[in-house]
Amino acid sequence: MKTREFKKKLYKQLAVVTKALSNPTRLEILDLIAQGPVPVEYIAEHIDQPVANASQHLQVLKKSGLVETERKGKYNYYQLAGKQVYDVWNSLRAIGFSRNSEIEDLLNDYRSKKSGLKTISRDELLRKMEEDDVYLIDVRPSEEFELGHIKNAVSLPKVELGERLDELPKDKEVVAYCRGPLCLMADEAVRFLKENGFNAVRLDEGFPEWKAIDLPVD
Description:
By secondary structure, this protein is of the alpha/beta class. The protein has 2 domains: 3-85, Winged helix-like DNA-binding domain superfamily/Winged helix DNA-binding domain (Arc Repressor Mutant, subunit A, Orthogonal Bundle), CATH 1.10.10; 106-212, 3-Layer(aba) Sandwich (Oxidized Rhodanese, domain 1), CATH 3.40.250. It has 10 helices and 8 strands. The chain has helices spanning 3-20, 24-33, 40-46, 51-63, 83-99, 101-113, 122-130, 142-147, 185-195, 207-212; strands at 38-39, 67-72, 75-80, 119-120, 134-138, 154-155, 173-178, 200-206. The strands form 2 sheets. It has a 5-stranded parallel sheet. Strand 7, helix 9 and strand 8 form a beta-alpha-beta unit. The protein is globular, with a radius of gyration of 19 Å. 28% of the residues are buried.
């Protein structure tokens, strides 16, 4: 094989990966399974897609080497194919924020319209955690909390907030987090808490970002 033909073949194989990343639904799936391994039924439910559609997207991701499966009983559980895949997704998202101002504009506009929602940085949260000055809640579904969560966080899924307000302290700042910077569950939780008289903010990151830099997790 000639050198030029060989190079074309190499780039063609690289394009398999980039093509897999070119679909917004597949990016949403990567964001979801960055939380931990889950079956296709769970993925389909949380991306609002039929199981058949979710399965097709997962097969594309699997063939590109971005996703792998593990058999547990009757079900295949899908997960990122290693930390390097998460790093690629995180870098792609970071480039999107830095080079496409519309992404950040959309988020800022959403938050400003939702009663001026504020965020807290990782460093500020760590400082306040050391001072025992915050109450940290994980508003993801309980299944994702069980797969891993920020150390000392309390599982309080967004759908249960209305029934469990009496568990929250009024004398501390409540910090909510979810799947990551593109996840809106924490925004919705903070808005609801503020409407009910709590001092609440959202972490500007999520569990995967926290775990990726080896901060304390359970």
